[in-house]
Amino acid sequence: MEVTSAVHLHSVGFLHLQTHVERLNGRAFFLSTRPRKVKVHLPCHHHHHLNHLSNTNGIGACSDRTSVILNSTSVTSTTSSAAGSLSEVEKIKQKCLTWQWKGQYSINYFVSSDSPQQLHGSHPPLLLVHGFGASIPHWRRNISTLAQNYTVYAIDLLGFGASDKPPGFQYTMETWAQLILDFLNEVVQKPTVLIGNSVGSLACVIAASDSSQTLVRGIVLLNCAGGMNNKAIVDDWRIKLLLPLLWLIDFLLKQKGIASAIFGRVKQRENLRNVLSSVYGNKESVDEELVEIIREPANAPGALDAFVSIVTGPPGPNPVLLMPKISLPVLLLWGDNDPFTPIDGPVGKYFSSLPSQKENVKLFLLEGVGHCPHDDRPDLVHEKLLPWLASISNSE
């Protein structure tokens, strides 16, 4: 989940303060994560042919810099059991590839299509962008459904999942937005619908608002974040009153020992389960697989530094200032039981006002759903998303 999720600071007693701040700000912070991986280098074609090729193992063609990223457990499973016995997460990991961004950063991504004909059809491809602390497998309950009619891409943003976490890198929302645009230009190479959750939504908004872009066909925002962290500027006197406390937390997180202790506590299984349960409306969706999706990569080198940089960095552009620039079709899917970006909070109120102001914007509230609708209640998301995508395709 990119979910921009809350830094629930269990170890130093900041939990209740953070929850209060997040409710006001419409924000949540999740862990930066990265799974262990084994790189298996295969003979490759140039990467722009990837969306025209696939093989019986579901591993697409790749560029001379591309290697298939396989989770170490998935490699063992593939050699010893039929593909049908693999979980959705394992299947997703098997099909992941790498792309070199700016010639120096390894970016993990996924592409799926059930039939080669789809690659040449009239339907636009889709790019799924996770939230803070999440990664590609967080779309485990959506990819197979979407791939029935669309070519589906998903990406691990820099600092998350199996993508690089460069030492000393200063993360910004603008960096992630540029990553998305470069990915569309170099890999997908077709007008694409961007689908994002939380901070991933905000990155999609920034990308779509770039006046020079030509490859964004539309955007779907799942509980869009107001900024990269709790310092996002919103018109709420309570947030401004609490800013000194947020600055104090930033100061503490910049102390290596304190940050390490906090991060160690946050990524413990039981603490993660508690955080996820507070984020999800449907508690049955908070299973062991979800906990591992968030937890396992958090032990990778660079995960702590990414966590600190994102939490303490600048909040980035305000979506309130960006949305008026976007004339593309926009679908808003909002869980009404989200404690971090509540529909009645400053960010939620703004987005809920848009359909009456802009004809290109549609909004659906999802009853009993939390901050991550796509994994919380995928059935409700697909019920609204699929007809909207069909309307986009038919309008071309």
Automatic annotation (TrEMBL):
One of its GO terms (molecular function) is chlorophyllase activity. Pfam families: Abhydrolase_1. It comes from the Eukaryota. InterPro entries: AB_hydrolase_1 (IPR000073), AB_hydrolase_fold (IPR029058). GO terms for biological process: chlorophyll metabolic process. Gene3D superfamilies: alpha/beta hydrolase. One of its GO terms (cellular component) is chloroplast. Residues 124-378 form the AB hydrolase-1 domain. This is AB hydrolase-1 domain-containing protein.
